Amino acid sequence: MIKAKKYPLRVKVNGISYKLRVEANRTLLDVLRDDLGLTGAKEGCGMGECGSCTVLLGDRPVKSCIFLAVEADGQSITTIEGLGKPGSLDPLQKAFIERGAIQCGFCTPGMIMAAKALLSENPSPPDEEIRHYLSGNICRCTGYVKIVDAIEAVAKGEKR
User: Hey, what CATH class is 6-82 in?
Assistant: First the structure.
């Protein structure tokens, strides 16, 4: 049996530094879920189509199911687990809950991470920009109305 060559991977995930050794063909999603136990990002399609695996690489959203882990070397990664803490949720997490933007919850982590990236680029996006930015994230349950409402509420600083 031939052993696959492993490459060093130094990343900071949710503020914690990691030094790993990974095969060149491992995806970032696999490393996050299998090696680090961060299961918030989901594998819905494995082809970068559904957005359930979206995480932030720096401030940029990436589809971690098609992003090779070795490409993240030296980078900072934020997953849904890194946004808020129990008892102190991120405003987007709160808004999604309060406005009923969650149905089955499968797409929610990727949707929130994409929204986080959008709001860091444009703190006051119009409805059309929100919908365009989320076009790479598929939700089969909500119809997007409440998701857009939650993002708009955070952008406007609304609290319930």
Answer: alpha beta
